[in-house]
Input
Amino acid sequence: MVEKAAAPRIPAVRRALLRAARALTTPLLPDDYIALLDPRWSTREATGTVVRARRETDEAVTLVVRPTHGWPGHRPGQYLRIGAEIDGIRHWRAYSITSDPEHPEGLVAVTVKEVEEGKMSPFFTRDCPPGTIVFLGAVEGEFALPQPLPPKALMISAGSGITPIFSMLRELERRDALQDVVHLHGTRTAEGFIFGGMLRDLAERHEGYRLHEQLSAQDGRLKTTHLDDLVPDWRERETFMSGPREMIDAFVEHWEGEGIADRLHTERFQPIIGDGSAEVGSGGTVRFRVTDKEATCESGVSILVGGEEAGATLPYGCRMGICHTCVGRLRVGRVRDLRSGEVHGEEGETIRTCVNAPEGHVEIEL
Output
């Protein structure tokens, strides 16, 4: 099953013309023919063209894309599912949007850090020249600046977790709201700091923005024990955090211990599964109809992991419920969302196998 792009914004006149043309193309739709000539002409899937790829570090590249149709807009901190066809197969991944929401040329950008064993990130960082056509999913995510803006903010990031934080900082500068922002960023080396040059320049231009770089190769990783020295008033600040799961878990626990968990906003690119915060159910068996494999998932084990442990080769992407690569169609039974504990599922419903577990016996059509 292939994940679809978002529906583009099509002018009313063009839609009317397409409806009129259906009489000539029945039983197919006019779009079926149009998309064969050039995917960018499709009125059913949003597409874009790579304008340039700007290298940020040895491992990270910013892809600048010109959407074929009008950009629906986004809030700094949100992410975009972006797809590309590699060897004839369309793959999807989700990346934080790092461009200005009101870019004067209507461009949109995502920043990709290469994962050596990955499928999409090597393509985007090495083999995606200007002119490449990509597919654009919906803008998603709740990680964003609140309204009104907080008078004092603390940004904490590490590694590629800098991307949504960078987008927020640009927005604060654009709105002349960098009066009191402290930013702690963990990076192995100064050279590997994605957007490091731009953020150091930002700190020089704005007294209200203070940047601390924690170089883990020489000073160790950023920990909660550093807070009192680096940001003595951290408890008073609205805090936004993005980075590795282990780091976020430690800081969330610290904020909870202080009784101020509601002041910490996090962006997780990995789901919380089976940690006791949500009902994980009792597990069950899964039969994958296409591969004719059957797996047993213990309590708290996702369908994807259970299937892989049983020897099935299953589609997967981010493994965190974002990119929609692992979707399958539920034919029998119901599933439990391991992030929320919610039990759901009707016959024919599309589910993500990486964040859902069987609730009893289920059958999945991939």
Observations:
- The mean pLDDT is 85.
